[in-house]
Specification:
binds zinc ion; five-stranded mixed β-sheet; alpha+beta; 27% strand; disordered N terminus; 368 residues; 32% helix; globular; Ribosomal Protein S5, domain 2; 11 helices
Length: 368
């Protein structure tokens, strides 16, 4: 069998060709006992569509060939100098609230987002518990939970944090108090749209102190079975997500989405993408009482390859866009902003958490 390894990074094409020419490819071919092919990196002059095409090819090859991403990338990818930039910290001008049902617990909660002083970070506050305990939105407080992200510190828990955190990260907010009077963030319509609206309602302000933004200098990868997560040095924050499984119904079998991420793009392309589930997979979970608050108003449900929601899909690739939304929320638990190109193949909340830890270690090591 012949495998095609196609690498598109980094943008410094000339350097890449000098340092990683044909001989290197041949060596790696011999090492892996496979024939390798090299596709040169993106030339910016070629424009986005061609660049995306090449990214698409790379991802398709990785997703269908099940290769060792770490070995591959460390062999090929040029390393940037590590760097840190700074921008002003951001918080909210006013507070804003919404009310809704948690998809897993079925409990109704009120959520209020509030301004917070510089250096607070993003923190939850359980106003229904004695002394209103604080729970910082950080990786170390992740508590394993199937199909969603839960944070826990001692007896204080907040479930399904990923969508609100995704919106907060994508509006570049650094200091926010999220008050909640129950155990789970409302699912709303299954997307981050309501949270983006909430942030806009509260208004974003710039604070005086600066925040460090970490720029990834070398690739980081994490793989387990068919799930691969890769971060590559990049000049802007980008995400690429792939859903790819022959077990999925045809409508979910293969979806690909790649984009640069900023607040404007997030709002337009990602915030409204809803969570999704295959009907046959969730019926047993509903019967066991694991999903108490799910309805067709809070998720896209696919049964026999048909979308059950009467209004249909918001984007034809809504599901993979939601993966990108989840990924941004989960990776925000690193606790500071960063610049990299994140590639996620068949990922989920548990793999996002493992990968976030790898990334945090990398950034921490580089900063020392
Ligand atoms: Zn989600």
């Amino acid at each position: 069998m012949e495998l095609f390894y196609k690498i598109f990074y980094p943008p410094r094409e000339r350097v890449l060709q000098d340092n990683f020419g044909l001989s290197k490819i041949e060596k790696i071919s011999a090492l892996l006992n496979q024939k390798c092919y090299f596709v040169k990196s993106i030339n910016k002059k070629e424009g986005n569509s061609l660049a995306e095409n090449r990214v698409s090819n790379l991802i398709y090859e990785i997703s269908t060939c099940s290769i060792d991403c770490g070995k591959l990338l460390s062999g090929f990818v040029m390393y940037n100098a590590s760097s840190i930039s700074k921008r002003n910290q951001k918080s909210l001008k006013n507070s804003a609230s919404l009310k809704g049902i948690g998809i897993f617990t079925g409990s109704e909660t009120n959520v209020t987002i509030r301004s917070a002083p510089e250096e607070t970070g993003i923190v939850f506050r359980r106003t229904d518990l004695p002394n209103a305990p604080i729970l910082p939105a950080l990786i170390k407080y992740i508590s394993p939970s199937p199909r969603h992200t839960t944070l826990r510190l001692d007896q204080t828990e907040v479930q399904t944090v990923e969508h609100i955190l995704s919106a907060i990260a994508s509006y570049n907010l650094d200091n926010v108090i999220i008050e909640i009077d129950g155990p789970e963030i409302p699912i709303c319509d299954g997307s981050a749209h309501s949270f983006a609206e909430l942030i806009e309602q509260a208004g974003v302000i710039s604070q005086n102190k600066t925040k460090k933004v970490y720029h990834l200098s070398a690739p980081v990868s994490w793989s387990q079975n068919d799930t691969h997560l890769i971060a590559l040095p990049s000049e802007t924050l980008c995400v690429t997500c792939v859903l790819h499984s022959s077990h999925n119904p045809p409508s979910l079998r293969s979806q690909f989405f790649t984009t640069q991420v900023n607040t404007h793009i997030y709002k337009k392309e990602l915030a409204s993408a809803r969570t999704f589930a295959v009907y046959e997979e969730i019926v047993p979970l509903i019967e066991k009482g694991y999903i108490k608050g799910g309805t067709l108003d809070s998720a896209v449900i696919i049964k026999n390859n048909e979308v059950l929601n009467p209004e249909g899909l918001r984007y034809k690739d809504e599901m993979v866009r939601h993966k990108a939304l989840d990924l941004l929320g989960d990776l925000s638990l690193i606790g500071f902003p960063f610049i990299a190109h994140i590639i996620a193949i068949r990922s989920g909340h548990a793999s996002h958490a493992s990968f976030a830890k790898e990334l945090l270690n990398k950034f921490t090591m580089e900063a020392e």
